[in-house]
Give the backbone structure.
Amino acid sequence: MHRVWADIDKSAVRHNLGAIRQRVGDTRVMAVLKANAYGHGAVEMARLLVAEKIDAIGVGDSGEALELRDAGITAPILIVGGIIPGEMPRVVANDIEVNLHTVQMAEELNAEAEKQGRKLRVHLKVDTGMGRLGMQPFEAVPFLHNMRRLRNLELVGMCTHFSLPYERNPAFTTRQIEHFNLAVEVAERLGYRDLTLHSSSSLAVFGRDDAYFNMVRTGIALWGLLPGDAQGNADQLKPALELKSRILFIKEVPEGTPIGYSRTYYTPAPARIATLPVGYNDGYRTSLSNKAETLVRGVRCPVVGRVSMDYTTIDVSLVPDAAVGDEVTLIGRDGEDQISLAEVAAWAEAIPYEILCGLGRRVARVYM
């Protein structure tokens, strides 16, 4: 029995992967498992997806990549973010693919691979408008000329990242695609053949179909979500995660009773206040105080008072038979009602990604 836990439906993840594959046809699929697979548990999700013959795995940094290698995951792993020199020895030793962002980075990786007597597979990241990591398209041209002298690196891919593929006006994303295509054309003219080309994240996979190239990178869609979906594409997906806690304590209080730190809430009438063993250390944010709702026996019960590090209080006056030990749904379905992740994110004035990635270590992951 857990105090706070996430029920994670593996069949929903399989369904979502199927929907992605149906959407992109023969295009290969990379599963992006950064941020602990968006809170779903990277190792368990990697095992599931490898069993489903996923083509590649993407992670945010070397620590995430090494966690998967240490767990026995042998599938191709690409660090989609950046790495620093101190991380290079273990990255090279564990056959982890790397996105290149600078000439210096390429030279340092080549030196480390030469030192180990290995050849490292790398991708060239082209910055077409994100303004974050990656080379500008004009920088990629001389770099590709010089790549051949880096004997211990093998260029196997090129990629870019869209800033907002769901825009009502698609002109900016279209321009990003054009700039990436120019860089790819240069690479092909210089003799780089059979490269893995990827640009589309989940939103682009479902938002537009002109940039699949030969691989797509899907993260949030695997978990059944498409934030910002204006086209109803999320209807094809199934949310994989529900967040639950249980009632630890119930107290009858009179009208005018202050609840929680700073007395941000006073009961407007006699009330039954239930305390839940979940708080901001678990990822249930302080910004949900006096805003969010929960489900107890299928009935919506509001969060009252300030969410603290370890506890949240809710008003269960509308559920007279609520008892200590009762399950409380923070995200997910109970009976005929459902608290969606989008609702929780809106109450928290956050985006759904933040809520999922913020789920803490105390939240047990229960795979179903």
Summary: The mean pLDDT is 95.
